From TrEMBL:
Domain DUF7382 intervals: 43-107
Keyword Transmembrane annotated: yes
UniProt name for this protein: DUF7382 domain-containing protein
Top-level taxon of the source organism: Archaea
UniProt keywords, alphabetically: Membrane, Transmembrane, Transmembrane helix
InterPro entries registered for this protein in UniProt: DUF7382, Ig-like_fold, Invasin/intimin_cell_adhesion
Membrane-spanning residues: 15-37
Gene3D superfamilies linked: Immunoglobulins
Pfam family, one: DUF7382
Amino acid sequence: MLDMFRSDTRAIEGLPVRLVVALVVGVASMSVMLNMLSGVQGLATSELDVKPTPDVVGPGEQALDFTVVDHEGNPVEGATVIVKSGTAEIDGVATAKSDDGGSATVNVDAELGANREDGTLVVDVKPPAGESFVDRRENTNVLVVQD
């Protein structure tokens, strides 16, 4: 019986064809599965952006208005806007939550260092909990200029 397997060369000839068929079927199946996954919007995330108004201010106490929007420009409710010192200084960190129109107002008392004519306040945004938003890119900073 062992001699029968030694003389049979068909398995060697059929093996590459079977591997090619298995590879083609595997690639086709994988492309269908990946296409199904890319259509699921629940896995996608949306970049948030913060638009300050005004984006250029003088030193002193003032209210800064911010609008939090998604990548399509729609307002985002429940995001936390964070303003902190950059090259211009404020005491601590100022925060506010965006309302249903995406608006948030932060009160700051900006100061410029000695011999500085301008500086910036850094603006960050923390996405609302449980949503598919992220803030990976740098937001527009607020420029503080000497009057």
